[in-house]
Amino acid sequence: MSDNSSGNLSDELSGLDFAAVSPEEFARIVKGLSARELGEVMHGDLRARVLSEVFGRMKQQFRPEAAGQLKALIRWKITGESEEVYETSIADGACTVSAGRSGAEPRTTLVMGDADFLKLVSGNGNPVTMFMMRKLKVAGDVGLASGLTRYFDIPKA
C-alpha cells in the first residue's frame, strides 16, 4: 500500500505548478509529509523543479535590512539521488543565487539530504537541532550558518 500512496503523492506533487504555490502553502505541504515521503518524491524532474523553485525564491524572501553590511557566499550541497550544488551570495544588501559551484571560496557550506533541506527552507526544521542531530553538516563559519534564517522570510506552516 505504501508504494501506491507514494505514487499518488508523487503524482499529486508532480502536477503542482510550484511557481503558483505560496511559501506558506509549500510549508504546509512539507509539514504534512514524513521525511521518508519527502525523500521518495525528490527524484528526477520533480526534484529539479522543486530545488529550482526554492532557490529561485530566495532572492524574493531575502531581508536586506536584516543582512545589513553582511558579505558572504553560502554554498548549499543537497544530497539525494545526486548531489546538487547552489550558491547564495549576500553582498551590498542584495542576494543572488546561482546553480553549480563557482571558483570562489564560500564562507560557509551547508550539506544536507533532500528531506532535511525541504524542512529547513519551509520553516519545518530547526537548523540548530538539525546540526546537533547531524542532519545538517556545516563547514566554515558555523556562526553565519546558525543565523542564516534571520536573513530570509521563512514561511510558517
TrEMBL record:
The record's annotation in InterPro entries points to: SCP2_sterol-bd_dom (IPR003033), SCP2_sterol-bd_dom_sf (IPR036527)
- Top-level taxon: Bacteria
Tell me where in this chain the SCP2 domain is found.
Answer: 62-152
Name by which UniProt lists this protein: SCP2 sterol-binding domain-containing protein
Instruction: Specify the species.
Output: Streptomyces atroolivaceus
